[in-house]
Amino acid sequence: MVEPVRWRRRVPLWCTVTALAVVLGVALSGATKPGTEVDFLQSGHWVFNSALQVVFHLDGASGTLDAQAAMPGAEPGSQVVQGETGGYVVGGNRIVEFGKSDLEAKKSIATGTDERPVALEVAGGPYLVYRRAGRIVRLGDRLTTVPAGGGLGEPVVTTAGSLWVHQPAGGSICELARDADRLACPAGAPGGHTGGLTVVADRPVFVDTTTDTAHPIGADGLGPGTALGVDAPPDARFAATDVAGRIAVLDPPRRRVHLVDTGPARAAPVSVDLPAGDYAELASAGEAVVLLDRAKNSVLTYDSRGALKKNVPMPPGEPRLAKGEDSRVYVDSHDGGHVLVVGNDGDVRPVPVGGPPTPVAQPPPPPRQPQPSEAPPPSQSPKPPPPAKTQRQQPKSAPAQPQQAPANPASPPGAPPGVKATAGNAAITVNWGAAAPNGGAVREYHVSWSSSAGGGSKTVAGGTRSTALSGLSNGTTYTITVTAENVAGRGPGSGATGTPIAPERSITLSRGSPVTTIDDCSIPECAYMRVVAKGFDPGQSYTFVPHATATSYKGGSATKTAKADGSITFEAFHFDQIDETVWVTADGLKSNPIVWTKG
């Protein structure tokens, strides 16, 4: 099942030097606690090759594969994280734990959700953060689940092993300290402010995109804000750690990345216009920022001065960024067959992950036929020589027997082709093509979406080719993934992004249908006002009030609910005063005025 001899268990020299430096630094500063242990960094990166059903360990320094273990049945697209003694193959529905010393699968843990978590490797971890469910899981000898009380933004960690999360709905900023089993929330963002977390000089920082300021987080709450010097939109994304002391700010709609210095020297920010593409993820490799272009399936790196270092393509699929404890950034292809290793300086090294899979179980070999010079074992009767056996075989029609062998079992479906996201008002319509069934009819498609404002998922029947996602946040970019499932399981996903945008709000007034049944309204002057409103929040109710230059007019009001597309159309408010001007207001918005005529 495994090949443990390929695993080199020696600690790299640079890890030993780093650990000694930490010991000396702590001793000099007095910042340690009695009994605190030295943490050795987990080097390298594990990746799961879905086609081979094998996990491989990649030595980031040399770019070589030095260990592997078979993981039959692990879900396609699973990511792998490592702790001190074990590794974890994390899929949408379950987690498979394996030992790093013996490379044996230990146990399988059901997650109770199909949400793909954010995985973080750090001392005391690793951690899985289920942002939509508002749940944090610490893996290790003792699995710990910590509820967070609501949806979460992008998490960050410090080298000491503390995990920090932001709750966008309530604004709370909370810490899960190493070995703690509950959150402590020392800070909070101002009400109604948007933003996210990053780590600068190993200290958590909240970036407020409403005021465009960065605030260090301490035991007493948010520290004083430092101006970014750039306009960070509400849906801005931040690298989890600084880039040579600068905060990396991604502005997806404008395809721009900013590198902002918030230190005492306060160098001017650097802004880089990105090539045409779809940018939704970024990470820091230390001295360089790493960006993922999902439109072209390529990885771009820029140094801290904004100069392009590399632009490297990836195989088709949906790649995934991961930050290792060794400070390198690893970019996995969706099927785990290819990894890009991004070094501290932004240099990129492609590493194919393949080779024959480690055998899981082999059928027993057929009995070896004795050679002519060999005598049969004493306990067995001599077998007839091959010519005699050939003469007693069935007629020539017998070779057709191989056709009776069972057909190859089904494998998970292929990735759905042509995934397209069409954005509307607080909604996105998703379309896709039929996935290759691979021996088993597609019975379901799973559609999931995620953003800085949260996400969700839904399941539709195998014959469905489109679905509508509603209740989304306008101005927020959503990453949408569609996967197909058959009897053998789920296949790889295909993705697209979309940004719902509310149309400009407007109220258009015109003369409506004539009225002949109201006694106090003259005919033929009497008619209703026709109101057409657009760009309002779907599902929300609004009160419309008519107005006129005729001081005696009192038209009442009408409350209407916006449709899914944000529109409201109705007729109301009868009127008959010729040459007077009328208009309608709702939610602080005024319609066009019209002069009333006989019609």
What features would you describe in this structure?
This protein is mainly β. Among the domains are: 420-498, Sandwich (Immunoglobulin-like), CATH 2.60.40; 506-595, Immunoglobulin-like (Sandwich), CATH 2.60.40. It has two helices and 48 strands. Strands 16, 17, 18, 19 and 20 form a five-stranded antiparallel sheet that branches. Strands 35, 36, 38, 39 and 40 form a five-stranded antiparallel sheet that branches. Strand 5 (86-90) and strand 6 form a beta hairpin. The longest helix has 17 residues, at 13-29.
Short description:
This protein has 599 residues and is mainly β. Helix content is 4%, strand content 41%. Keywords: Carbohydrate metabolism, Glycosidase, Hydrolase, Polysaccharide degradation.
Query: Structural class, judged by helices and strands?
Result: mainly beta
The largest sheet, given as strand count, sense and whether it forms a barrel, is:
5 strands, antiparallel
Head-to-tail CA distance between termini: 86 Å
> Which residue ranges are poorly predicted, with pLDDT under 50 across at least 5 consecutive positions?
1-40, 356-367, 369-408
Mean pLDDT: 82
Radius of gyration: 32 Å
> Helical amount among residues, as a percent range?
under 10%
CATH T-level topology of the domain at 506-595: Immunoglobulin-like
CATH class of the domain at 506-595: Mainly Beta
Query: What is the number of E strands?
Result: 48
Tally the helices. 2
Strand residues, percent: 35-45%
Shape descriptor? globular
Question: Can you name the CATH architecture of the domain at 506-595?
Answer: Sandwich
